[in-house]
């Protein structure tokens, strides 16, 4: 398949504990496009846009409750193939920041802690080729991953992208 | 013999232009000491048994769990499980393949089994 980038230009992560509903527009979520689709996550990038100190305890994790009825991405947010020649996918992964049924971060399946200060801080994580964490299907707990803020900090305005590849 | 360096990802936390995050928050996050201040760069590994991403602490001097069967470093938790199970190796890729196989077989029988994991 082909790599894609899910980008959110600017958002303020809303800190929530594990297994608590996320707040719309306060996180980034990525779900498989079918019951068997596998997605590899290659890269996570965040750039802080806050105008004052904003310790942000950002977590990449699997979700133990997955979203239902996602809201379409609005202006400034996008999910697009990196290569313009990429053919349309039969099962398009679901990139979202809001939904009717809210997702919840798993308490046991956290994958990576990317804590930083959003007052001009930068975070970039890259997986080694062949070592990427995977999303499988579209049900809990392997079918959805999220980038969200954990309680304890004061998350600030952030721009972020997740580069991933549906297989 | 291939080097385990091939399994290493890369993490950069750049807090050079801000106060960073406190050492308490760094410790709570499970990041190496000093990761919350200034420029921090470190290799990461993806545990081949559970896919947790581990930030390699450059100051660690304890042995890092390694699975010779899949030739990967694994996380501390999976290292303990592996010890307790007599060296058993089940990679996350195997789990995924088994789940996909189960779903395909169920679909062929006109039923669907959805992959789940208890939480």
What does this entry look like structurally?
- The complex is a heterodimer of chains A (167) and B (119).
- Chain A has one domain.
- Chain A is mainly β and 167 residues long.
- The model of chain A has no long low-confidence stretch (mean pLDDT 95).
- Chain B has one domain.
- Chain B is α+β, with helices and mostly antiparallel strands.
- The termini of chain B are far apart.
- The mean pLDDT of chain B is 89.
- In chain B, strand 4 and strand 5 form a beta hairpin.
- Chain B has a three-stranded antiparallel β-sheet, with no helix packed on it. A two-stranded antiparallel ribbon of chain B has the order 4-5.
- At the A-B interface, strand 10, strand 11 and strand 12 of A face strand 1, helix 1, strand 2 and helix 3 of B.
- Strand 12 of chain A pairs antiparallel with strand 1 of chain B.
The structural class of chain B is: alpha+beta
- Major β-sheet of chain A, in short? 6 strands, antiparallel
What is the average of the pLDDT values of chain B? 89
Uncertain runs of chain A with pLDDT below 50, 5 residues or more? none
Strand content of chain A: over 45%
Tally the beta strands of chain A. Answer: 15
**Level of helix content of chain B?**
25-40%
What is the percent of helical residues of chain A?
under 10%
Task: From the alpha carbons, calculate the radius of gyration of chain B and give it in angstroms.
Answer: 19 Å
Number of domains of chain A: 1
- Helix vs. strand class of chain A: mainly beta
H/E order of the elements of chain B?
Answer: EHEEEEHH
* Unreliable runs of chain B: none
Terminal CA distance of chain B: 39 Å
| Largest two-chain interface | A-B, 45 and 45 residues
Q: What is the number of helices of chain B? A: 3
How would a crystallographer describe the biggest sheet of chain B?
3 strands, antiparallel
What is the multimeric organization of the chains shown? heterodimer
The proportion of strand residues of chain B reads: 15-25%
